[in-house]
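Input record, target 12 of the design panel.
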């Protein structure tokens, strides 16, 4: 089964990152991040400090479902947990989707991963 490819001209693509990766734009949050061809959209977001909703990370739970508004993706699994109608309508699962060009996602539920370090645990027994 061939991986679906989606394209649209509704939103102009951002300038390509200089390292050869693809740009991922999140319409709902307004954030963007680079994605390498060998990582999923979810993994790339985490690497960039952006957490997309997820649970199983294997394409079955659908917690990460969002709409591919523009661009092209390929799945790393043969049968992602989407119906044929959902795939035809442009719904994707970022946990098992890799960018094959710049992509724009809508309906994401992204949050920034905090960069502040947690407090270290105290040493020794409590008094």
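The sequence produced for target 12 reads:
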């Amino acid at each position: 089964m061939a991986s679906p490819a989606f394209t649209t001209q509704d939103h102009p693509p951002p300038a390509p990152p200089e390292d050869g990766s693809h740009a991922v734009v999140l319409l709902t949050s307004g954030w963007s991040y680079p994605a390498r061809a060998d990582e999923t959209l979810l993994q790339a977001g985490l690497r960039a400090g952006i957490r997309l909703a997820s649970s199983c990370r294997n394409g079955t739970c659908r917690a990460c479902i969002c709409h591919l508004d523009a661009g092209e993706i390929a799945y790393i699994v043969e049968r992602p947990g989407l119906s044929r109608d959902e795939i035809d309508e442009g719904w994707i699962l970022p946990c098992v989707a890799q960018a094959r060009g710049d992509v724009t996602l809508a309906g994401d539920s992204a949050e920034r991963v905090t960069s502040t370090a947690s407090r270290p645990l105290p040493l020794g027994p409590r008094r």
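Residues 41-47 form the longest helix (7 residues).
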